[in-house]
Amino acid sequence: MGTPNWSNRTIFTGDNLDIMRGMNSETVDLIYLDPPFNSNRNYAAPVGSKAAGAAFKDTWTLSDLDVAWMGLIADQEPAIYKLLEAARLTHGKGMQSYLCMMAIRLLEMRRVLKKAGSIYLHCDTTASHYLKMLMDATFGAKLFKAEINWQRTTAHSDSRTFGNVCDKILFYGVSPINADAIRTPLAASYVKSHYSFSDKRGRYRTDNLTGPGLSAGESGHIWRDYDPSDIGRCWSAPKSGKYAEWIDQNIIPGYLEIESVLARLDSLEEADMLIHATKGAVPQLKRYLDANPGQVPSNNWTDISAVNSQAKERIGFPTQKPLKLLERVILASSNRGDVVLDPFAGCATACAAAESLGRQWVGIDLSPKAVELVNFRLKSALGSLYHYGFVTSREDIPKRTDIDAPIHYRQNKHVLFGRQEGVCNGCKMDFPFKIFDVDHVVPQSRGGTDHIGNLQLLCSSCNRIKGDRPMEYLMAQLAQANAPTAFR
Ligand SMILES: C[S@@+](CC[C@H](N)C(=O)[O-])C[C@H]1O[C@@H](n2cnc3c(N)ncnc32)[C@H](O)[C@@H]1O
User: Fold this and answer.
1) pTM for the full model?
2) How many angstroms is it from 353 CA to the middle of ligand 1?
3) Rounded to the nearest whole angstrom, what is the distance from the C-alpha of residue 97 to the centroid of ligand 1?
4) Sheet harboring 166-173: ordered strands across?
5) How far apart are CA 256 and CA 106, in angstroms?
6) pLDDT at 488 over 60
7) Which of 190, 326, 443, 450 could be joined to 409 by an S-S link, Cβ 3.0–4.6 Å?
């Protein structure tokens, strides 16, 4: 587990790839990301709304495709590379470039997430099936927990096909969810059909008081003329577990201490918790609705609606998600004090929900609007508890403090020469050792580190062209000059 190199309640303005590269490893317990969906739309908040001025592009074209990253993925993550190639063949270059943009960021998220952490990727059917494969390849198919269907609206008319009313949320992680933290009341129809009896204590259903099999011990004895062995069973009045605890706390004080099963039957009888419905048949136990803690939501979430035009929480951000949705995610997969990261923060719904639930949080967005919006939201929510400087706003790339003091990066030249087998990573030509320079793949000015994973050898000529720029610049220059490259 790492130590964060940023403080709680920070919003970074900038590209999340650069920012995450600067974040220490294994420092985050929960990541929720709601990236643009590749839906071919440009989003802009309406003039006059709190979010006015916020806009982002949701289209990817070849020009965005980062050829350098494709090369890096080919080297280090062959499964992801093949998947990106498959997406190009089945769907086209736009999808490939969208997935490449996502892949390179998901790899950073994998690094900053703690081993026991969880990640929820919010998307829609435009790319959800490709993203599922990408998540499998990045986090491991074994860590897949659920594909949540979030029904955000009830109607969406499209006479050409079935109206799409759902988003998808892909959930991966090691730890089980906090089921008790997210229970919801039982559906009225279920209560009606299952808890069909009532008495002075309220609604109840009936349950068996016997278990399977004969017993030679006390649980096989006759109790008040009832012999459970007549029906091949033995007594099984609740002794431990949630219902026994509820009885102890609400109806029969000291119930949990009653060792004898026959004595427990006596106390249940005295407390009017048994039903003698059919003459001669063994009695049944009343199970009260009040004792039911509610149900754990399935993977089909139909009880949270999208932020509509009348909603109090609405601030006019085009893709704002409801607080209730984020609260469920955060309650399910984090505890008080844990760190939540939203790398596509938008109007910072996840940050606001994390704050209200006592979690630490950090958000990143390209748009400077995110800082303004999270401040606005927290100020309205916290009232006098909110003060100047409550939220830290940063535009710099954090410097990792968890990398071993590196040897001077040039000292890696021999290792890199062996790894690259004497071939320049730019023009792909063979050169003698002395012609090579050690270069930062991701420039230091954009958060690139001296770690060997970020170093490569370039021939002097390629190194001169690249200078302090990212690899895509060099590749574009080489392509223009018609030089042979492995990335085209
Ligand atoms: C769909 S919205 C997120 C909405 C958010 N869940 C909410 O409730 O407000 C996607 C956000 O990602 C941001 N974004 C897109 N590309 C980004 C990048 N490379 N780095 C950081 N933010 C980015 C956009 O500016 C936009 O605000």
Assistant:
1) 0.80
2) 16
3) 17
4) 300-301, 144-151, 166-173, 113-123, 28-33, 339-342, 360-365, 10-13, 392-394
5) 50
6) no
7) 450
Residue in 13, 32, 56 to alter for ligand 1 test, most ligand atoms within 8 A of Cβ: 56
Report H helices in 271-410.
323-333, 349-356, 369-382
* Beta pairing, strands 339-342 & 360-365: parallel
Contact 33, 342 (CB under 8 A): yes
The verdict on the CB of residue 459 being under 6 Å from ligand 1 is no
CA of 8 to the centre of ligand 1 (A): 20
SS3 469: coil
pLDDT band of 262, cuts 50, 70, 90: very high
Looking at the CA of residue 326, tell me the nearest atom of ligand 1: 8
- Residue whose C-alpha is closest to residue 369's, from 45, 19, 39: 45
What CA dihedral angle connects 313, 314, 318 and 324, to 10 degrees? 30
Please report the atom of ligand 1 found closest to the CA of residue 101: 19
Question: Ligand 1 in contact with 321 (CB < 6 A)?
Answer: yes
Tell me the pLDDT of the chain averaged across its residues: 89
Query: For 151-156, what is the mean pLDDT?
Result: 85
Q: What is the pLDDT of residues 107-140, one digit of tens each?
A: 999 999 999 999 999 999 999 999 999 999 999 9
- pLDDT (tens digit, 9 = 90+) per residue, 421-442? 889 999 999 998 889 999 998 8
Tell whether ligand 1 has an atom less than 6 A from the beta carbon of residue 181.
no
What is the whole-number distance in angstroms between the Cα of residue 124 and the centre of ligand 1? 15
More confident residue, 100 or 72: 100
- Taking the centre of ligand 1 as the mean of its atom positions, its distance from the CA of residue 93, in whole angstroms, is 22
pLDDT at 46 over 70: no
Q: What is the mean pLDDT of residues 2-26?
A: 94
Query: For residue 345, how far is its CA from the centre of ligand 1 (angstroms)?
Result: 5
Q: Whose CA is nearest to atom 26 of ligand 1?
A: 346
Q: Which two tokens stand for residue 237?
A: 């009045």
Predicted local confidence at residue 486, as pLDDT:
46
Taking 50 as the threshold, does the pLDDT of residue 317 lie above it?
yes
User: Tokens in use for 302?
Assistant: 């139909």
Q: How many CB atoms lie within 10 A of CB 366?
A: 17
Band the pLDDT of 42: cuts 50, 70, 90. Answer: low
Give, using CA atoms, the residue closest to atom 27 of ligand 1. 346
Interatomic CA distance for residues 256 and 234, integer angstroms: 20
- Show the domains of the chain with their CATH numbers: 10-184+296-394 (3.40.50.150), 188-291 (no CATH), 409-480 (1.10.30.50)
